Amino acid sequence: MTFAYVVRRVLTMLLVLLGVSILTFTLLFVIPADPARVIAGPHAGPLALAHIRANLGLDQPIYVQYGLWLWRAAHGNLGVSFAYRVAVLPSILVRLPVTAELAAAGLVAELVIGIPVGLVAAVRRGSALDRLLMSLSLLGVTAPAFWLGLFFIYLFGFRLGIFPLGGIGGVWHLILPAATIGLGGGAWYARLLRSTMLEQLDRDYVRTAAAKGASRARTVFAHALPNALAPVVTQIGLDLGSFLSGVLIVEIVFGWPGLGTWAWTAVQNLDYPVIVGTVIVSAVLITLANLVVDLVYPLLDKRVSLGGPR
Amino acid sequence: MAIFGPLVAPHNPDTQFLNGLNAQGLPVPPSRQFPLGTDTLGRDLLSRIIYGARVSLTVGLAANAIAIGVGTAVGLVAGYVGGLTDTVLMRLTDVMLAFPNLLLAMALLTLIGPGLETVIIVIAFTSWASMARIVRGQVLSIRELEYVEAARAIGASRWRVIVRCILPQLDSVVLVYLTLNIAAAVLFEASLSFLGIGVQPPAADWGAMIAGGESYYQIAPWVFLFPGLALALMVFSFNLFGDGLRDALDPRGGGRTS
Q1: Mean pLDDT computed over A106-110
Q2: Are A274 and A88 a contacting pair, CB within 8 Å?
Q3: Could you give phi then psi for residue B21, rounded to 5 degrees?
């Protein structure tokens, strides 16, 4: 049952990725921009431009370009960068761990901030502490990440001189960008966890556990928390798209040499193969994360089974 | 504040003051004449922030009007008609939701060229799909209600059922989603302008103002600090408004907005 479900989901995923690639190609083709012009510079003659276009395959009709791309992509080849003449897939794979490092640190920061804050606010519902934490979290949700990053660089990097101003190299460089990501996301999950915790704490089974003499800590941590975390985990998976966007912009602010900075350079150079490549790789990551969440969810919440009622 | 900008603002947002830059050509800190200091071109920061609210609101409202319109239409049709139409439309939203939004917006804006209208269209383009999902979910439950069945039984056309019976039931969901989505759009627009591919200078725009202050952050931190605070304040108020609306209209939770 589970196996058939996974196969069906992977097939749907491939279909979605096909759609993403078709749409990306259509958009790039519909919009009148000329990468050859960017490569050749403003003083190139029409002959040089035509030569460059023929070289890059840009003189072919869109369906030929797409067909060629798809054929190569199916063989693990995403083409060659216009601007740097390097193969696209390896250049993405090299930067993927760099982005993953920041993303993982950011996610850890989100959870380290979000779970304790949400838990404390829910357990101390209605107290001054609850109100303070929730007001702070609303501020955390609203502060734009790129601005928060700049503010951190100014305060902790420049004014206090504790952290480096940007770039990469060791844990010390990781803390400020990770905190920038973590504060916004953490505040969001704190609010979410607070409301799911409140819902669980009102349930009969929690009252039963308390009546049977379980300590307050035990009812909260062993009984209510696992159930309250399930929707939060789902939401984290669903948010991966916007999470990725957040990581990209934080990368640009901190000069973190990952996928985001690479994609941003590619966009400015009209480097089509790199743009298409990073879009596809990101889409793979997003759909994969959604699949993993759907597979993990039944383990967290026993009432849900894969593929609807059996 | 956005509407009454011209009455409240102490100066013209585009005037470059001779005394707006110091002897070294650097922005001057907050003073009596310039309450929040000046920017890197010697313009009054407070006035620019006030005018910037208009840009943010315009983009937030216009982009959402389009996204809501398209999303509701798609969601209604998919949810009510069902069958193959539903499958095709939902696979299309799957594709849209799998797109890395920021990357897509960056690419589109660089290719088309930045500007107010383009930003609005691009933000709408990246945000209609989740609206369609939400509306479809609502329609699926509403269409099974008895009064809809009654309307069908007395021979109302499909179109009439959609417009007269189902559409009016959606307003509370759409309204809550709208306010939260405006906050998200305002943030998104600021990010794009921060990258230099959103609303273009000399228009006063918060994202662009933060970017303008970025290279001066060590000597003139107020130039990037205050526009960011204004931005956070606007997003904050939309979120608060959305939270309030949700509590008033619908006890269930919603999605992430940023």
Answers
A1: 90
A2: yes
A3: -125, 145
Cα(B181)–Cα(A42) distance, rounded to whole angstroms?
Answer: 41
Do B255 and A238 make contact, defined as CB atoms within 8 angstroms? yes
Is B108 in contact with A252 (Cβ distance < 8 A)? no
B27: three-class secondary structure by DSSP? strand
**Shortest CA distance from B255: residue in chain A:** A235
Residue of chain B whose Cα is closest to the Cα of A192: B253
Instruction: Return mean pLDDT, chain A.
Output: 81
**Which ipTM value was assigned to this complex?**
0.75
Q: Which residue carries 């208009």 as its tokens?
A: B54
Residues in chain A closer than 8 A to B225 (CB atoms): 151, 154
Find the mean pLDDT for residues A180-209: 86
* All residues at 6 or more sequence positions from A143 whose CB lies less than 8 Å from its CB, including other chains: A183, A184, B228, B232
Distance from CA of A223 to the nearest CA of B (A): 22
pLDDT digits (tens, 9 = 90+) for B108-146: 888 887 888 888 888 888 888 888 888 887 787 777 777
Chain-centre distance of CA B21, in angstroms?
Answer: 34
What is the rounded CA–CA span in Å between residue A150 and residue A169? Answer: 19
- Per the document, the length of chain A is 310
Separation of alpha carbons A259 and A286, rounded Å = 14
**Where does residue B171 rank: exposed (0-12), middle (13-18), buried (19+ CB within 10 A)?**
exposed
CB of B92 less than 8 A from some CB of A: yes
What are the C-alpha distances in Å from B45 to residues A154, A155, A165, B165?
A: 19, 21, 26, 50
Residue B76 CA to residue A41 CA, distance in Å, equals: 49
B171, B249 contact by CB (below 8 A): no
CB B105 within 8 A of CB B188: yes
Residue type, B40: T
Q: Rounded to whole angstroms, how far apart are CA atoms B239 and B246?
A: 10
Q: DSSP string of A97-156?
A: HHHHHHHHHHHHHHHHHHHHHHHHHHHTTTSHHHHHHHHHHHHHHHS-HHHHHHHHIIII
Please report, to the nearest 10 degrees, the dihedral formed by the alpha carbons of residues B111, B113, B115, B120 taken in order.
-20
Output the six-digit token pair for A14.
């491939």
The answer for A 287-306 residues in CB contact with B (under 8 A) is 287
Cis ω for the linkage preceding B202 (within 30 of 0)? yes
Calculate how close chain B gets to A215, using CA atoms only, in Å.
30
Alpha-carbon span A119 to A232, nearest angstrom: 12
**Chain A residue with minimal CA distance to B101?**
A245
Give the 3-state secondary structure of residue A87: strand
Query: CB contact, 8 Å: B250 with chain A?
Result: no
Beta-ladder partners of A198? none
Residue A170 has pLDDT above 80, yes or no: no
Mean pLDDT of A47-52: 74
Q: Does residue B214 sit at the A interface (CB-CB below 8 Å)?
A: yes
Q: With 0.95 as the threshold, say if the pTM is over it.
A: no
